[in-house]
Amino acid sequence: MPRARMDKKELLLCVYSLLRNHNADTLPLMNRDRRGRGRIQTPRSLCVPPECFPNLHYAVRFMFHMDQVSFFVAFFAALFAIANPIGNIPFFIMYTANATSTRIRQAIAILLGPIIFATILLCMFFGSSVLSFFGISLPAFQIAGAIILFTIAMSMISGTHTERVNKATSSDSGKTPWQAAEAFIPTILVPLVIPIYVGAATITVSVLYGQKAIAGGFLIDAVGVVAIICLMIIVCNLASGVIMRVLGPQGLEIVVRVFGIILLGIAVQMFAEGAGDMVANYIHSNLSVNS
User: Pairing state of beta strands 38-40 and 30-32?
Assistant: First the structure.
């Protein structure tokens, strides 16, 4: 009984579907039988027309790279929207307003980049496992972040946050800018890094695309996306010095109080979303058990 033959389009679609979850090194799947016909090892042992063979390898490799591009663009767009390097500049200004010099502020901006990079990578590859190990769900983590933001927002509105940061950074004299920045960062690690830059939404997206990167062989692309986002955060925060010079001390104090109110709204929104997801998961689990 003669074997079924395929046209070029059907052949490319077949090979593309086979290779979606494989590495590019597995692409040279074609060989020739004793009669000189191209053959691809599929469950149906489909015969490949000889005229299709020369361009098949390049066509499939092109499709694989299109998958890489799609992954890169989708992950970059999602992480950029959540990390929001431009939109979070006011928060960086607010939390570094008490740095004693511009050079210290620039050193803080540069040091924050690797910290955010390492945090996102840890969330990408180990975030889900760590939360599962401690029995913490993402909605619960989101609610915890909302409570932290709520307490900090209230201290910003009342002015006690500024006083606390001033006390923590009052001994910067005699230190180099990098030493002063290293001493300053622990005072703003929460909530500037967690949960403003790396919150529940960032963890969710990182875990999701981390799993896709492992399954599709896009680890380098995933790490590249995180590196680009962190470089953008550094550049945006370095530009904050110009904004601070325009606002002045009184303007910065006003900005701190205004953004305290905004941060309070973000905390309430995070709490509502986390509580809603937790209730939905509880109802869903109960319905599943009852059914």
Answer: antiparallel
